[in-house]
Every structure is written in structure tokens, then in C-alpha cells.
Amino acid sequence: MHTRILPPTDENLELAAAALRRGEVVAMPTETVYGLAGPALDERAVAQIFAVKERPTFDPLIVHLALPAGRASGAVDWVEHLAAVGLIDAAALVPLARERVQALAARFWPGPLTLVLSKHPRVPDLTTSGLATVALRTPRHPVAQGLIQRAAAPLAAPSANRFGRISPTSAEDVLAELGGRIEFILDGGPCAIGLESTVVAVAADGALALLRPGGAPAGELEAIVGTKLLTPTANRQPPTTKPAAPGMLESHYAPAKRLMLLSAPVAELRPSDAGQIATWLNGKRGVGVLLQAGEPNAARAKLEALLPGVAWEIASLSPAGDLAEAARRLFATLRALDASPAVELILAEPVRQTTGLGHAIADRLRRASA
Ligand code: TXA
Ligand code: MG
What is the mean pLDDT of residues 292-319? Predict the structure, then answer.
């Protein structure tokens, strides 16, 4: 199959929407990462998403919704709306749960927040991997919004990468991942956030659990609802064979090359750290280095002094140390180091700020190194 990257003209949006209405899948931009979209209530289309991604069916999908036409998010009664379109079981939510869903959706939809709620029987088991819950998000990207509206159906959309690989943040990245497997990629430019949405489960009693850190800072969510988010290790659910958020599988977002996390930023490495790095190198000469901040040249001088004879390829996520910029560039930078013929091993600096976007970046790097 020949894959075409389409600029997001009205005509092309209509072309992609028509494919969705026929039950086909297309790649669409969102503000977080690109998604591989198909009608969420069409089991055949959902099966196609799993097949194209080579994703195991125990890893459930996020269902993407349009903002109700002509209404601001704060003016929408989200629980009513989600129940009316047949996605959730509103009766399963106590008033506290409803209140929290409304407060979070009013603030973060459209945007990088996914809420996991008790599902409506109409949502196919394949979409939710047989779970009693469904993950929901209203994306902010105008191309995603336009496509969902034209398709006139909620769209299931996992990140548009092959399973376990780095999420795509541009149309070209999607082509590199899924070229030849899908017909259309709508081009919405580089993703503004660059990391996947924050996934929060809302229990029937209103308790909130952070299943995946992402584009919406957990601290802001907590401030809005006035309570702490539980974390899967901190909540008291009995252990199950399936992870609570199967996307939290350890080896995820992984480059093909080996990635190791440094114990300290390059500027703070000491001669005694050289031994550890040399062990990882195991005779290799070409090393890619992912800096969280600062200029590559300062790091280069330091590394050359520490380990002479190594060929360094150094990339900084944000020379100025801006976290939003670092998040936006993380996946593309990893992808570039992974693709560089000179790089045999990737070393990544640890993340200093471990809240908000810093937490999400640290999470992705930890998984990439597993
Ligand atoms: O930003 C994003 O969320 C992107 C864009 C395309 O919207 N999508 C995305 O989808 O990251 P995916 O499939 O790569 O990740 C979905 C995450 C996984 O961790 C999955 O396990 C979790 O959401 N998830 C989905 N449904 C769930 C459910 N019912 N209960 C718990 N976790 C769920
Ligand atoms: Mg993914």
C-alpha cells in the first residue's frame, strides 16, 4: 500500500473522514503525539488498528471525542454528554466522581488529559481490552477536532507507532513507523506538547489514580480537585495479572539501540563514573548523548576528557533549560540518535525536576532504558 502525507485542507480532511466512515484507519495529528485513528465503536476498524501497530490486544485504546459544536468546555455537562453519546455508564458514578470529571474536563478538555471511566456496554471489548472501563480524551489539535467532527464518530487512537517503539511527533515520523501499512497521514505539523496525555482513572467513588504521567501536570490536576492522585503502587487494589494501564509495560517508547540512564548530569560526572560508562560501551566507539539542558559543546569537552577515543554525538533537549521545549523535542531527538549510523549506544542524562512534565520525561526515559 502506498502511504500519502496529506496537508490538512478541507478536501483532505473529507477524504480521511470518508475513509474512517468506511471503517478504515488513518493517522492524525494531535497536540500530544500523532495517533492512528479508527472508529472506536467499529470492531473491525479497531482490529485494524491493533494489526497495523502489531499491538497486543491486551493493551486498550484511548477514545477521542469532538468538543460539542459551538460550546466551550466549561459549558458542557461532560458526564451527561459522555453518557448521551453512549461511551460511559453515568449511573456508575457517585456525585463526587461526577464533580471531579466535570472540573477536570472543563479545565483540560480539549487537551492532554485522558480520563478512564466506567464504560457503556456499547463500547466494544476489543477497544478496551475487555476492561470494564474506557479511556477518553478530547484532543485540542484543530485537525483532530475537524476529523472527528467530519467522521461523526468517536475515534480510537493509540500513538501511531509500531508497538513498543518511540511515539511519532511529526507526519514524517509516522511515515517512518507505518509507511506502507496505511493510506493517509494527515499532516498537522510538529506536535506542540510532544508527550502523550496524562492518564487518570476515576473510580466509581470518585478516587483518582494517576496511570501515566503526561502533558497535563499532575500537580495542576490535584489543585483543581483538591486531593492527591493515587499512584498505582500507592493504591490498594489487589495485584492483577494485567497492569492497570498496560501501556505502562516496562519496555516502551524504546529506541532500537540500547539506552542507558546516566547517574548524574554530564557536568557532574566524575572520573570514577568513567568506569561504569566504559563497561556499557564494551568497546563501542560511537555514543549518542541526550542532554536535558545546556549546550552540547560544554558537555563534549567534559566527556572527551573523561573517556578519550570515543566519538560523541551530543543533542540537547533544551539548551536554555525549558521543560516544555524538552518535552516537545524528546521523541524526535531520541528518534534522530536512534537513526544516526554513527551511534551504537545512547546515554541519557537524568531529569532534575521530577514533577509535571519532568515526571513524564523521566517516565519515558526510564521505559526506553528498560
Ligand atoms: O496523548 C495520547 O494519549 C496519545 C494521542 C494519540 O491521543 N495516545 C496514546 O495512546 O498515547 P496509547 O494507546 O499509546 O496509550 C494509551 C494508554 C495506555 O497506557 C493504555 O494502557 C491506557 O492508555 N489505557 C487505555 N484504556 C485504558 C483503560 N480502560 N484503563 C486503564 N488504562 C487504559
Ligand atoms: Mg503509545
Answer: 97
Question: Given the DSSP bridges, would you call strands 258-261 and 113-118 parallel, antiparallel or unpaired?
Answer: unpaired
Q: What is the pLDDT of residues 188-211, one digit of tens each?
A: 999 999 999 999 999 999 999 999
Ligand 1 site, residue 24, Cβ cutoff 6 A: no
Query: Residue 250 burial by CB count (10 A; 0-12/13-18/19+): exposed, middle or buried?
Result: exposed
Atom of ligand 1 nearest to the CA of 36: 6
How far does residue 132's CA lie from ligand 1's centre (Å)? 15
Ligand 1 pocket: which of 49, 114, 133 to mutate (most atoms within 8 A of CB): 114
Q: How far is the CA of 65 from the centre of ligand 1 (A)?
A: 14
pLDDT of residue 247: 53
Percentage helix, strand, coil for the chain under 3-state DSSP, each rounded to 5: 35, 15, 45
Instruction: Please report which confidence band the pLDDT of residue 83 belongs to, taking 50, 70 and 90 as the band edges.
Output: very high
Cell numbers placing 107: 479545565
Q: Which of 60-74, 154-168, 237-251 has the lowest mean pLDDT?
A: 237-251
Pocket test for ligand 1, best of 28, 32, 62, 174 (most atoms within 8 A of CB): 62
**Contact indicator for 326, 361 with CB cutoff of 8 Å:** yes
Strand-by-strand arrangement of the 311-316 sheet:
258-261, 345-348, 286-291, 311-316
Beta bridge partners of 159: 35
Does the beta carbon of 138 sit less than 6 angstroms from any atom of ligand 1? no
For residue 35, which ligand has an atom nearest its CA?
1
Peptide bond into 110 cis (omega under 30): yes
Contact criterion met (CB below 8 Å) for 114 and 82? no
What pLDDT shows up at residue 370?
A: 76
Alpha-carbon dihedral of residues 97, 218, 193, 247, nearest 10 degrees?
A: -70
